[in-house]
Design a protein that fits this description.
The chain has one domain: Rossmann fold (3-Layer(aba) Sandwich). α2 runs parallel beside α3 and α7 packs across α11. The chain is globular. It has eleven helices and seven strands. The protein has a seven-stranded mixed beta sheet. β1, α3 and β2 form a beta-alpha-beta unit. Bound molecules: S-adenosylmethionine (SAM). The site of S-adenosylmethionine (SAM) has 21 residues, from α2, α3 and α5. S-adenosylmethionine binds next to α2, α3 and α5.
Length: about 260
C-alpha cells in the first residue's frame, strides 16, 4: 500500500478544509502577487486560496502524483508542481507573497531547519502561514499506538517501522520563528466535528493518521483486521449522542509569520 488516495481524503472535505479557511482569513497580506500552497493535496486548500485572492498568480505543490493529478484536473488553469516541500524550502528560485500550508507539514522532518527556510522564500511584506494537527496525544492517536503495541500486533510493527508525524508545541515554533519574523501570530483551535458514527472516525484516519500503520502491513486482510481492532478500541470512548452522531474533537495549531517589508 502506498500513495495518497484523494477520494478517501475528500470524504471529510468540509471538516478538513475549515481550518484552511480560518487560516487564510487571518493572513494580513493585501493583494498578494504570488501565492503557493505547499502539500496542496487534491486542491481543496488551493480552492480556498484561489477564491480568497483571485488576482494572485497561484501555484500548488505536492509530492503525491495522485493528489497533484486530482488538483490539476479540478483547476487546470493554475500552476501545479510535483515536488517535495523541504527541497522547495531549500531552493532559492523566487519568493512568494504568501507561502501557505494546511495539514501537510506534519509529514515533513526537521521543522527547526525547514520553517526558517520557508520564511526565507517569503517576499518582503508577505507571510508564511501554516496549520498542522496538534493532537498527537489525543485519544484516537494514543489508541492507534496502543493497538499496534498490543501482543497481537507488536510483531508487525518493529520499532522505527511506522512513519512518525513531525510536530511540536507552540513554544517551539515561537522560539524557531520569532527571531527571524517581523511578527508572529500563533494559536490553537479545537474543532468539534460531528461525525455520523464511530466507524467514521476510522474512515477519517484511513485518509491520514492511520496510513503510516496500514502501509507497514502487507496484505489487505491484515489491514482490515487492524482497522477493525482500532475501531473496537475507539467504540467505548465515542458513544452515539442522543441528538445523533458522535463528537470528534480535533485540536490544530496555526501560525502566521510575517516578513518585514524592508528585508
Ligand atoms: C493531509 S493532506 C493536506 C491536503 C490539503 N492541503 C488540505 O488542506 O486538506 C497532506 C498532503 O501533504 C502532501 N505531502 C506530504 N509530505 C510532503 C512533502 N514532503 N512534500 C510535498 N507534499 C507532501 C501529501 O501528499 C498530501 O497531499
Amino acid at each position: 500500500m502506498s500513495g495518497w488516495n484523494p477520494n478517501q481524503y475528500l470524504k471529510f472535505a468540509a471538516e478538513r478544509t475549515q481550518p484552511c479557511r480560518d487560516l487564510a482569513a487571518r493572513i494580513a497580506v493585501s493583494s498578494p502577487r504570488r501565492v503557493i500552497d505547499l502539500g496542496c493535496g487534491p486542491g481543496n486548500s488551493s480552492a480556498v486560496l484561489i477564491d480568497h485572492w483571485p488576482d494572485a498568480e497561484f501555484t500548488g505543490l505536492d509530492s503525491s502524483a495522485e493528489m497533484i493529478d486530482r488538483a490539476r484536473r479540478e483547476y487546470p488553469r493554475q500552476h501545479w508542481i510535483a515536488g517535495d516541500i523541504a527541497e522547495w524550502a531549500a531552493a532559492s528560485d523566487g519568493q512568494f507573497d504568501v507561502v501557505f500550508s494546511n495539514a501537510a507539514m506534519q509529514w515533513v522532518e526537521d521543522h527547526a531547519a525547514v520553517y526558517p527556510r520557508l520564511l526565507s522564500r517569503v517576499a518582503p511584506g508577505g507571510a508564511l502561514a501554516i496549520q498542522i494537527p496538534g493532537n498527537i496525544d489525543a485519544l484516537p492517536h494514543r489508541l492507534m499506538r496502543e493497538v499496534a503495541a498490543s501482543p497481537e500486533w507488536k510483531g508487525s510493527f518493529p520499532p522505527g517501522k511506522v512513519r512518525e508525524w513531525h510536530h511540536h508545541e507552540m513554544e517551539f515554533y515561537y522560539d524557531t520563528l520569532a527571531p527571524v519574523a517581523a511578527r508572529l501570530d500563533l494559536w490553537a483551535t479545537e474543532y468539534l466535528h460531528v461525525l455520523a458514527d464511530v466507524e467514521a472516525i476510522v474512515e477519517w484516519y484511513r485518509g491520514t493518521g492511520l496510513r503510516p500503520f496500514l502501509e507497514v502491513l502487507e496484505t489487505d486482510a491484515e489491514r482490515q483486521r487492524f482497522a477493525a481492532d482500532y475501531l473496537a478500541s475507539l467504540r467505548p470512548h465515542f458513544p452515539p449522542r442522543a441528538a445523533g452522531g458522535v463528537l470528534f474533537p480535533f485540536r490544530r495549531i496555526f501560525l502566521i509569520a510575517y516578513k518585514g517589508s524592508n528585508l
